Amino acid sequence: MPDPDLPNLDESVLDELLATTEDDRAFVEELVHTYLSDTPALVEAVESAAAADDAAALVRPAHTIKSSSATVGAARLSALARELELAARSGALDASARDGLEQVRAEWTAASDALQAWLTREQRT
Fold first, then answer.
1. Would you tell me how many other CB atoms lie within 10 Å of the CB of residue 41?
2. Considering the entire predicted model, what is its pTM?
3. pLDDT digits (tens, 9 = 90+) for 28-87
4. ∠ at Cα 90 (82, 103), nearest 5°?
5. I want to staple 107 with a disulfide (CB 3.0 to 4.6 A). Which of 13, 17, 77, 120 is the partner?
6. Residue 93 has pLDDT above 90, yes or no
7. What is the largest CA-CA distance in the chain?
8. 29: DSSP letter
């Protein structure tokens, strides 16, 4: 399980994205919007793979969630997806991996809510 001290959203990652894009808010907001629109299908793919007990089918969506979540600062979801990817690559979904699979939807909801709140604050500035 991911470190409970990890934030749902590490806003310093978004600050760094803004800094590296010379404060191109439109670009960073578009990146976040894309993440928010693309990730639900990946979460569903993870849940489908889990329901089918198909470790091989879990690898790609878990990897994509891991990477894209890290890019936008969704630290807890990224860490959870990393653990799931590693478990899936081993070919076996043990009890620990199953617990992680059950947390994916909750972590996604928390990350999504935090990013929506960030977007709302950014659009006011």
1. 11
2. 0.91
3. 999 999 999 999 999 999 989 888 889 999 999 999 999 999 999 999 999 999 999 998
4. 40
5. 77
6. no
7. 47
8. H
At 58, list the tokens: 């879990």
Query: ∠ CA(61), CA(64), CA(65), 5° rounding?
Result: 85
Task: Name the residue type at position 82.
Answer: R
Q: How far apart are CA 58 and CA 30, in angstroms?
A: 27
- What 3-state DSSP class applies to 4? coil
* Cα–Cα distance measured from residue 40 to residue 27, given in angstroms and rounded to the nearest whole number: 21
Nearest to 70 by CA among 1, 4, 6, 5: 6
